């Protein structure tokens, strides 16, 4: 009888161990949402298991990981936050740059704005706007790039009192799409979204007027094999082709 109980318990714990096996949890910068959705689908089509994916600002994710949040892979929107995690002993190494992002300015199609390609046109649009959306520069690299651009073009004083700050670049984009802001700065990868293009127009910002947005990813210590496999997949030709389609440059 005792032997049967031991056998039952062994089978039970083996079964529950597989049921509650660690699921890889991935922190992904908000500017990557559309591109990463496609990358994750391609990754799963190769027979890989489901992952838990959370989107948000790179700064918030870095703070959460430093405070013990159980993310296994951090796919950030810049280099600063991943490297900070490595210096603090959270990441296995310095990681890898997987993409270079581009900044865009968007406006509602209904606004009638035909072009925002020159400083004069952008200055005029800011003057007419009630609100200008950007992501918080201390949390989101695309917000930081927007501030750099405005200052480089001597538009900061014109815009600063009209700025509405979002926690991440996805939220800043939504402000414009919903009409809460008249114009805004976003990632080109989000601006190219088919859903967003139904409501907004986008125009590229001169990349010489802000620091290059090198997007780095890092693996956390103790990451499960699925996270390691995804990290490698992100550097492969299939993922890189998807990133290029969404407007990123790749290393």
Notes on the structure:
The protein is α/β, with parallel strands linked by helices and 251 residues long. It is built from twelve helices and ten strands. Strands 2-1-3-10-4 form a five-stranded mixed beta sheet, sandwiched between helices. Strands 7-6-8-5-9 form a five-stranded mixed beta sheet, sandwiched between helices. Strand 1, helix 2 and strand 2 form a beta-alpha-beta unit. Helix 2 runs antiparallel to helix 12 and helix 3 runs parallel beside helix 4. The longest helix has 18 residues. It starts with a helix and ends in a 6-residue tail after the last helix.
Give a brief outline of the structure.
The chain is of the alpha/beta class and 251 residues long. The chain is built from twelve helices and ten strands. Residues 1-21 have low confidence and may be disordered.
């Amino acid at each position: 009888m005792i032997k049967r109980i031991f056998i039952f318990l062994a089978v039970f714990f083996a079964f529950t161990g597989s049921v509650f096996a660690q699921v890889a949890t991935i922190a992904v910068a908000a500017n990557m949402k559309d591109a990463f959705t496609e990358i994750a689908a391609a990754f799963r089509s190769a027979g890989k298991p489901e992952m838990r994916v959370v989107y948000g600002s790179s700064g918030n994710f870095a703070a959460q990981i430093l405070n013990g949040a159980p993310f296994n892979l951090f796919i950030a929107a810049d280099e600063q936050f991943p490297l900070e995690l490595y210096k603090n002993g959270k990441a296995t190494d310095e990681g890898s740059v997987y993409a270079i992002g581009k900044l865009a300015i968007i406006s509602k199609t209904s606004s009638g704005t035909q072009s925002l390609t020159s400083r004069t046109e952008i200055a005029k649009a800011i003057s007419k706007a009630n609100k200008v959306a950007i992501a918080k520069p201390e949390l989101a690299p695309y917000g930081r790039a927007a501030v750099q651009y405005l200052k480089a073009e001597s538009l900061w004083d014109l815009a600063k009192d009209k700025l509405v700050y979002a926690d991440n670049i996805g939220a800043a984009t939504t402000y414009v799409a919903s009409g809460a802001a008249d114009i805004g700065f976003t990632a080109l990868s989000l601006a190219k979204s088919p859903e967003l293009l139904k409501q907004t127009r986008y125009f590229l910002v001169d990349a010489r007027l802000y620091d290059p947005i090198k997007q780095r990813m890092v693996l956390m210590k103790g990451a499960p094999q699925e996270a390691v496999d995804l990290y490698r997949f992100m550097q492969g030709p299939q993922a890189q082709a998807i990133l290029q389609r969404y407007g990123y440059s790749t290393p």
